Amino acid sequence: MANRFWVGLNLLLTLGMLAACNGGVASPVTKTPMRILIAGSLMIPFDALEKAYEAEHPDIDLEMEAHGSIQVIRHVAEVHELADMVVSADAALIPMLMYAAKSPETGKPYADWHIRFATNNLGLAYTAKSKFADEITPDNWYKIIARAGVKVGIADPRFDAAGYRALMALQLAKAAYRKPTIFEDVILGQFKTPITLQTEPSRAVIHVPEILETKPASNIVIRGASIQLIALLESGDLDYAFEYASVIQQHKLQLVALPDAVNLGAEQLAAQYAQVQVQLDFQRFASVKPVFDGQVIQYGLTIPSNAPHPQQAEAFAAYVLGAKGQAVLRAQQQPLITPPRADRLDALPAALKPLCAPM
Fold it and tell me: All domains of the chain, ordered by start, with CATH?
């Protein structure tokens, strides 16, 4: 018993001396968990941001959650889940879906401002295993993907901006390549309930049905988010997929660079992009008509009005938009809008105003 007493006493004395040398017993850091909802195409860049930011802010735990852009916003504005930040690959979805919807708890719109901070362009991803990989070029890609037996991946346009942008690109390609059946050659006849095309005097309108199922022998493969198509490309289950150029580069896939008239990435061609529109032929959202206009690709972020940690969200947003965050994004091949452009600049949190120009 005496031996046990002295062993215990020596242990206590040793621990006390170590604590004194270290200035006392260190208490564990309490982390603030922040839920950040992001477009799937931002997974790699925002993973890098998460690591860099948490290294500087050990009291913050960024919890990244990726979906198709429509789903990202629906989690907040339709399902009424809490989030500290929303980041969409289509900035136009934020005013469409968050300005118009109100939190049932507060009665306030889910957002009354957003910042456009990044851009991109649409490309066609493939691998060395893809059919006709040794033939495909920026001049003939639309012919290759229309060939029998070639599997083409498209994100579901009901959930992901990359999906309705892929449909727009196929329609825009008609004028770019002077071939009036490109959209039809790739899309028509592939679905049980067809995607249809209506030509109006000033634009072409693509209609997407409520139930979008491919036929058993279809060459088209649909997934809820464009990022889900990457694994199918790598496994050889897909030959080609419409993806953002940054995502193709990040995953070290082969890229067919689409011309500016098709890729939705050139600001000087905004009027040309506006000649195509995608409509969902059902009430996808509670109070908003689901209509997506052809626009230059711009990513947007906002902080929901009911965010659980608004001050911490503002600090992270300032990091993303500031020099350090911009450097992280550039290192991940994410094209940026410099300076970021704000819708409703006066409504921005004070910390973000100096980082933005008016939209």
Answer: 32-119+297-358 (3.40.190.10), 122-280 (3.40.190.10)
Tokens representing residue 310 in the block: 């608004």
- 322-327 long-range Cβ contacts below 8 angstroms, 24+ apart: 322/355, 324/52, 325/49, 325/52, 325/53
Spatial contact of 359 and 342, defined as CB atoms under 8 Å apart? yes
How far apart, in whole angstroms, are the C-alpha atoms of residue 176 and residue 276? 13
Is the CB of residue 263 less than 8 Å from the CB of residue 121?
yes
Q: What's the predicted TM-score (pTM) here?
A: 0.90
Q: Which residues contact 298 (CB under 8 A, 6 or more apart)?
A: 90, 91, 92, 116, 118, 119, 337
Res. 9: pLDDT tops 50? no
C-beta separation of 160 from 179 below 8 A:
no
Instruction: From 276, 261, 161, select the one nearest 207 (Cα to Cα).
Output: 276
pLDDT, greater one: 227 or 284: 227
